[in-house]
Write a structure and sequence with these properties.
- By secondary structure, the chain is mainly α.
- Helix content is about 55%, strand content about 0%.
- The chain contains 5 helices and no strands.
- The longest helix has 17 residues.
């Protein structure tokens, strides 16, 4: 099955994310060795994008969750907290003197 984003077929995971976001990943994560001036400009551009698209973080979270569900569903196999509490209560009690 091909993953098509905005009419393009991404070749790498990074390209998939860039197509899904509509921005380069480096805008959000930065690049190694960037100067303070470059960092400030990058963060300023990111703030402008978030101001124009306030629901972008929610969309990114949804895309990430869908990708995890599709390619690594075992990451969503969680145990409810109530189940762990119940399991703890069912352990056999040990009696005796501690050494």
């Amino acid at each position: 099955m091909k993953n098509i984003v905005a009419g393009h077929v991404p070749v790498t995971a990074t390209e998939f994310v860039e197509l899904a976001l509509g921005t380069p990943v480096e805008l959000w994560l930065g690049v190694e060795g960037e100067s303070e001036m470059e960092r400030a400009a990058r963060l300023d551009a990111a703030r402008d994008i978030l101001a124009d698209y306030p629901d972008l973080p929610d969309q990114v979270s949804r895309i990430a969750a869908e990708a995890i569900e599709a390619f690594a569903p075992e990451l969503f196999n969680v145990v409810p907290l109530s189940a762990t509490k119940t399991a703890r209560l069912r352990r056999p009690l040990r009696s005796g003197v501690a050494a």
